[in-house]
Amino acid sequence: MKAHYDVIILGGGLAGLTLSLQLKKHKPDISLLILERREGEAPAAAFKVGESTVELATYYLREVLDLKDYLDKYELPKHGLRFFFKSPKKDDITTRLEFGPRLRLPVPSHQLDRGTFENYLTRLTCQKGSHFLSGARVTDVHLSNNTHTVFLQHDGQQKQATTRWVVDASGRASILKRKLGFHKTMDHHVNAVWWRLKGVVDIDEWTTDTTWKSYLQPHLRYLSTVHFMDTGYWVWIIPLGTKNTSIGIVADPAYHPFEDINTYEKALQWLKKNEPLCYKMLEPYGKNDGVLDFRVLKHYAHHTQKIYSAQRWAVTGEAGAFLDPLYSPGSDFIAMNNTWISDLILRDLAGEQVALRASIYENTHLNIVDSWLPVYQNKYILMGHPQIMVIKIMWDWALYWAVHAHIFANDGFTDLRILKQLFSSPDSPGQKAGLLNARMQQLFLDWQPYDTELITEGYIDPFDLDFMKTWQKNIELRHPPGLLVNQIEKNVALLEQLAASVFRLVSAHVKETPHDMPVNPYTMSLNPNNSTISEKETDLVITPDPSLEKEIAKMWFYKKTNTIHV
Question: How far apart are CA 60 and CA 433, in angstroms?
């Protein structure tokens, strides 16, 4: 260990290791020290959750960090997210409405075995010249305007090193957040438990129904991140490259108390009651030392008031904010987080003043966290409503692909001119996307009391909708900076049309309003005290687009859309 480094990273997990690789890629001579409390290599089991990646994080790993060869060779390809909704016959998987892609997706993603993956990243960052110190417990950090000092215990000795930049990637230990007191409460109280089972779990083998099996090619269901949903919870099944399987339960304690799932034995009994087929098919794997680990996390969502500082420190990964594992956003935030941090560090080392950038990046990051929170907050009650969840998942994916993933793949988050055009004013496309999302998430909640029809059986492929297929395919489509903003504006305009189309269907079902009524997507509401159309903003009123209405109808399953069900 040297006396001084350009950057010291507190934590050698996914966030810290990927940051080190990103910095080394752009500045091979940068001096890096990574301090990891764990002794030795990461275990294959008894390790971290977060195996499933989605498009933004996959682009980061494959294209930004140049890990595509490793990922293709050693980690499983992922066939999207797959959902099985509520059914009165949960012991028969064919009775559940299924939502997920049939065909292989044009934009790749992966199922990561976190232990083996992080061990590889550790070896790689050491090969590139970084100093990785395992068994190192950080005891204090002294921050100053010039040089920071990090104090640690290693091999029974007290040690210290100075650094120009210190980055906290310590996960929930949150060293800097605790020291400086910038924790922020997040009003989203949901719990998770998870475990790994020895062996391959392929849900395609959970029935002999040949029609159900024929919906997509063999083994594609196996490669999906599978979700079983009902009111207040979802269960995941994720395959791993080590031929083991990750199982998890995520539940809102208002419906499913933490005390009912916080041991393996309790979790099994909970499955037996709530997901009997999962219990029947998974319980045998746990016999004869088949349970490789069991972990719990209570009230996992947390926020932060600070992320980047002109004083040359930053936080990344779970040391900052974490929302919810649904849709696997954790590695997405690591990708965005590390990209902002890398940009600040590299510019600072090149002699540039970064105070303004640090402030802009922090505001952008925190605003994205806040705009994504409504996707999860108070939404677990909706998981027992298949029709609502089909529309909600479609919307959530559309917003993600059309805006944030596309901006990231085009390097838009580190271009101040682009950020200004996208997010600086109330009528900028980024802010409009956030307002649209908030309005849609409230619509889903307002719709819930009227959704009394249980939709069962059948297969829904979101890529049957042309705009969904186009947005996913075009995530990595490169644009010149000026054209990127134009493209996001076009995407948000289509999101406005999509929101209005969904509202027409829901309002017709709930209030018997006309299917062709004009809608302002920024003021639309099922609340009779709110006006559907804003008289002051008539330019935002949207009339039906027949082609889009036809597309959305593929996701609509009520038999009589003009009947009010109470």
Answer: 23
